[in-house]
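tool_log.txt
---
The assistant was asked to compare two proteins side by side. It first ran the structure predictor on the initial sequence, then on the second. Raw inputs and outputs are pasted verbatim so the downstream comparison step can read them without reformatting.
(1)
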Amino acid sequence: MRKPTQKRSIERVGHIFDATRTLILTESIEAVTTTRVAELADVPVGSVYQFFTDRDDLLASLARAQAGILAKACVATLDECPPDIFDHWPSAMRHVLESYLSALGRLPAGIEVNRYQTQHMPVFEGPHGLESPLGGLFRDVMARTGLQFPPEREEVILTTLLATMSVLVDIALLQSSNEQRDAYISECLGLAQLYVDKSVADPRK
């Protein structure tokens, strides 16, 4: 995606994203084409290609924009948490995951876009990568809980943990009931805790 800089261009990209979400909601993600999006956004198809190389670039860019929105929502929630929640990192992580899922559910076509990125975008390079907004959120939570990993392994540990949790949370989102979703979230946190307990050097222990 070519990042817009002027106000008019930013607004146009916003209209393109809105049109993409509308197509996903009213038809399906398979219905998204640059031509259909341009028609719905009431812009020339050339305007779509001005910012996006093709349909896949458009959807990937929408997923990244969505990840940024979700990360901001979760950070705002973290800032309102009582300090003692960070004394137990699984509790803090569960709080973040619940905030993430709640914010995702409020976004138009949020879950559908999330499924697309799971199927088509590598975890390490997509919106859930360690250098992404959600990756930054993950680092923030770890820092607030005071967890310390061996410096020579920290990057590998964080990447492995984030990638594993991202995949398991995506599986949870595919479940048809809240009970099933919560069960997968609990298993995700349990697995993550086993890995962290094995890898962490916590100064408070």
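(2)
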Amino acid sequence: MANFMLPGALLAAAAAILLIFVSVSSPTWNNIFFLQAVSGSDVIHFGCFGFTGTGTSFGYFFPSNLAPESVLVHSSGITPSSTTLSNSTSSLNTDVVHNLTKTLFLHPLAAGFAGFAAIAGFAIHRVAAIFFTTLAFLTTLVAWVLSMVLFGIVRHRIRDAEGTDSASQYGNAEWLTLGALVALLLAWWLVLFGAFCSHRHRHRY
């Protein structure tokens, strides 16, 4: 079992390190970010708990100038009320988007689970290793999917905004999270295979 548990523990430890990097992304570490937005001469990096030039917070709002609200004009030439807005250029700070920024806390949570999985693997504790590796993998999967959804929405709205020179692109935090997800998937497989081999060996002898 140890022959498979130790590589699994190393992969879990690597995933934990990657997720820690993501957890201390912009504004704490501006070189790690989920999305980069450029508006004029300003370059803004968005991270887990804020963005360039802000403090850290649980959930945050995006700069409204990146995708200002625009009012559609009917073919009749009559401008509708301000409640009728283009979906692609509406404010970034809707309730859905703001609530999705709060789910970014799953990255440090996944880092913690991956760390416990690594410790359990190095200690050759089969049950704990399986439990925390599974938990870390599932949490990282949900975190990555939600971050892709969040910053996919933001990226789309910034790029489609009219009357601005804003641009945006995905950052390295997305791919670091994906790397951690792959590492945890391999760690999970190794831990399960090691536990299965140990169970068969114990019953054979």
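---
observation on (2): Residues 12 and 118 are 5 Å apart (CA to CA). The longest helix spans residues 126-160.
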